[in-house]
Each structure stands twice: as C-alpha cells, then as structure tokens.
Amino acid sequence: MVDSKSRGIISPATDFNVEHVISRLRKAMRGIGTDEKIIIDILTGHSNSQRQIIQKKYKTVYGRVLKDDIKAELGGHFEDICLALLTPLAEYIVDCFYFAIKGFRTDENCIIELLVSLESMKRRTLEERRQMSMSRKSKLSSEELEERKKKRKLYMKNYRAKQSKQDRAYRLQQMRQHASEIRATETKQAREARLQQVSQHAAEIRDTESEQDRAYRLQLMRQHAVEIRAKESEPDREAQYNQDLADFLTNGLNGDVKKLVSMLVTKEREFYAEADAQLAQADAQRMLKDGLYKSWKNEDFLPLVLTTRSKLQLQATITAYEKISGHSFKEAVKAEFGGSLRQSLLGLVECVENRSAFFASQLHEALNGPKTDDNTIIRILVSRSEVDLADIYEWYHMKYDVDLCEAIYADTSGDYRTILLKLLNPQK
C-alpha cells in the first residue's frame, strides 16, 4: 500500500495582479468572438482562492457577473469545466453531490468517491457552507425584518413621487440589469418572494404611470420572466445547504449503501492517529471469525471500522487480514457482497489503500467506457487539481502504461480538450 505525499498541479500565481487579469478577461469576451485561450490560461494559471478574488473584482469594476459572461460566451463541456473552476471547492463538491443524487439514477460511486477523498476539515467546510444562509437569517428577528420592509416601502413611495418619466424609465432599466445579476445565485424561495415584490411594486405605480410607461414596463417584465424560466432547472443551493448533510446525501439511497454514506458523514474518523498493531490484529481476527457479511450486519462492526479508523489504522487492519487469511481483502468483499454495496466498499477500500491509484482507475473507466464520462473527468481534474493530481497522473501511467494527457487527447476535442490538458500541464 502506498501513502505518497500528495502533490497538486495547480498552484497560486506568484505574480498575481487581479486588475490585469480582469482586464484580459473582459477583453477576451467583449465584442464579436471570444478569445478562449486567454480564458483557459487565466483559469488554469490561478488557484481556486485566486479565482474567487478575480470574480469579486470583475463584479466590482465592470458590474458584471463573470460566470454569467462565461455562460453567454461558451458552451458544452468547455463551459461546464470553466464554471466548475470558478466555483469555490466546497460549493462545487456539494453541487457534485446534488447531481449524483438527483440525476437519472443515484450515482453511489460518485458519492463514496467524494466522501472518502475529503479530509475532515474539508467535510466541516461543506457543513459550514451548507448552513451559511441559515445563519444569516437567524441574526434578524421577524419584527426587525418587518420593520425593514416598512421603511423600504415608505422610502420607495416618496422616491417615486419625485421621479420624472425619464427617471422612472431609467430606474426600470437598472432594475432589469440588477435582476439579471442576481439570477445566477437566486434560490426558488427567494425567486418567489422577489416576484411577489415585483407584483406589489407594479400595483403601486399603476395609478401614476402613463400608458406608454406601462407598455414599456410590461415589456421589461416579459423579458425578465423569460430569463427566469431559463434558470429554473439549476440546483436550488439554498435548499441544499439548509438540509442536514447526512439526510441530503442519503435521500436517494437505500439499504446498506445509505447506512455506509450516513456513517461516513456522521462518524468522526481519526485522520491523524498512528496505527495500533494490536488493534489492527484484533479487528482482522474478528472479521475473519465472523466473516465480512456478518461483521457488517452484526452490531455494525465492519462499517464502524471502515468509517472511524484512521487511514493508517485501516491499512494496518487490511494488511493483518490478508496476512492471516491468505487472500486479499478486496477478494473477500467481492465474494460476500453484491450490487451497489460491493462497488461502494471496493471504492472505499481502494481509496484507503492508495487514493491516487483509485482516482487513476476512475479516470481510466471514464475514458475507456462505451461512452466518455465527462462528468467524472471534470470532477476529478477540478477537485484534485490542487491536492494530488500530479500523483494521479503518475499512477495512471504506472497502472495502464499510457500517458494520461495522451488518453485525454485521444478522447476529447476542441477547447474542452485544451483546458483539460492545461490542468495536467499548465506550462504548455
């Protein structure tokens, strides 16, 4: 079993000049045509934390949302990976969980892959990010919220009374621009509340506006409604974060896989504990005596070992098991379990034995299946780019005697291929 020191490929730019970066991005997407090379160079030449700074500065300077501009200019898997790179890691992982559960069928392998590969600190970050909206709302009482609404209503009433027709038309145009900026992050609940406010606002100004003003306003509202409908298929992140993480992840699962995922989320793993040889021997002997299936069913012994022991401890236990039994632990899993649980347990064990080799095999399956699994390729390259992608790259070559860049080049095309290759080798 190998426990190599993790090495990422993407690192923070040492000469980071955010003003220069956003200027290049704006020029790349302004006017006719798009300079995809600049977009690729910037996204692969900066770390995730730097990309968040770039997005904020872009919004401040240009009054535009970078992700919206990317969506307007790009398409296909190239757009998908660019948006993934612009998303904070914890939020991106939650989105991956969401689509693994809400897709045509629940992708248990993806869920296990994401859970077992995350350190405890990153898992806590997911929980904190998921509850962010809840903490914001809890700071204001219902009376304070109602008072703020009343003050805003009175202010707007006085403001409208002083406006000319030209000012009103300009204000409506600004409202439309503002609406387009918030749609990318707006939840279903917030959207419904905003539409209700728009309706109330329209009722308040009808008594004072001319027929021409009304026609112009209705035209803007119709355009606004069309744009809203285009966004309604996107995941409701607010709803995602407001659920208990274990409940959210197990919502589409059943039986033993549901139990395994729930325990991976709720149980504390001793990530930094040293291996205890005596404990490893005792755990291995108990699993051999009862058999893996009974160890799973009786008192949840096997799932507790798999979800709470440290990585080093699990490696020691598996080694002890194989030494005593004379066969591999994975062979025993294949013999005693079936279906989704077998696949999930094998994925977990492979991650424990060698995480980089596990991801290399996932990439190999994604590239060599009956159909290219672009979601898996994007997920692994984006989420591991700053963690251990260099190790994954090397293990791919060692396991399959094929260079990962060559495999991706042969199975992809266009700008999508270019950005994947740049993530693996930013210097080219």
UniProtKB/TrEMBL annotation:
Biased composition (Basic and acidic residues): 178-194
Region annotated Disordered, chain positions: 127-149, 161-211
Key words of the record: Annexin, Repeat
A GO molecular-function annotation: calcium ion binding
Gene Ontology CC: one annotated term: cytoplasm
Pfam families linked: Annexin (PF00191), STPRs (PF21107)
PROSITE patterns to which the protein is assigned, alphabetical: ANNEXIN_2
Recorded family membership: Belongs to the annexin family.
Name of the protein: Annexin A3
Provenance organism: Caerostris darwini
Lineage: Eukaryota, Metazoa, Ecdysozoa, Arthropoda, Chelicerata
